[in-house]
C-alpha cells in the first residue's frame, strides 16, 4: 500500500475531502474558542471603559520588550507552520519535519520569554493583592486581566507545542504519513493561538505607552 | 545537466514556491507589527488604542486569509469562521448596550 493510500481514512473518498473535514471540525472548535476569549476581551473592555486612566497607568508597566519579541516569535512560527502544512500536502517529508521542529522551537522560545517576563513582573510585585505598588486601586483590575489572559494564552500555546512535538514524532517514526489530514488541524489551531496574541499585544503592551 | 541535477532543481523550485506566498504575508505582518509598535509612542490620545486595534484587525485578517488559507476554503468553513466572529460581535453589542446606557 502506498503512503498516500495509507493516509486515507474511512469514510472519505479522497485526501482533499478528508483534509477539509478535519479543517471544518477544527474551525467549529475554534468558533467556541473565539467566544471563550471574546468573553475575556469583553470583560476587559467594560472595566477599561470605566477606568480609562487607571488602565493607562497600569498598561505602562508591562514589559514591552518581551511582549514585542514574543509577537515576532509567534508571527514567525505561523510562517513555519504554514510551510509545514503546504510541504506535508506536497509530500515533502523532510521540509515538513524541519518546519515543525522550527515551529515548536519558536513556541518554546515564546514560553521562555514569557517566563522571564513573569519573573520581572513578580519582582515588581505587579500581582493584584497586598503590596501592589500602583495606584489608583483599579490598576489591579488591569493586572488581574493581564495574568488571566496571558496565562490562558500560554496554556493554549503549551498545548499547541505538545501537539506539534507529538505529530513531529509520529511523522519522524513514519507511524502516520505526512500527507494525511493531521497537519490541517494542527496548523489551524496554531494560527488561532497566534491571532489571540495579536489582540492581547495592543491591549496589554501598547496601551499607555505615549 | 544530469537527471539528478534536474530533479534537484525541480525540488528547490517547489520549495521556493512553498515559502514565497507565506513569506510575503509574514513580511507584511512584521511590517504592520512595527507600525503598531511605533505608533504606540505617538501622543494621539484615544487614537492610539483605536489605531493599534485596527492594525491588529488587519493583521488577523491577513493571517486568517493567507496563512489559514480561508481564501481557498469552502463556503461551509467560511460560514463557521464568520459565525464565531458574529457571536462575539453580538456579545460585545449586548454587553455595552447595558453598561453604556446605565445612569451611574
The proportion of residues forming helix of chain A, as a percent range, comes to over 70%
Compute the number of strand runs of chain B. Answer: 0
Count of helices of chain A?
7
Give the helix/strand class of chain B: mainly alpha
CA distance, first residue to last residue of chain B: 81 Å
> What's the main sheet of chain B like?
none
How confident is the prediction overall: mean pLDDT of chain B? Answer: 91
Are there runs of chain A of 5+ residues with pLDDT below 50, and where? none
* Rounded radius of gyration of chain A (Å): 20 Å
Beta-strand share of residues of chain B: under 5%
Protein chain pair with the most extensive contact, residues per chain: A-B, 49 and 48 residues
Main sheet record of chain A: none
Strand tally of chain A is: 0
Shape of chain A: elongated
Q: Note the overall shape of chain B.
A: elongated
Order of H and E elements of chain B: HHH
| Mean of residue pLDDT values of chain A | 94
* Helix content class of chain B: over 70%
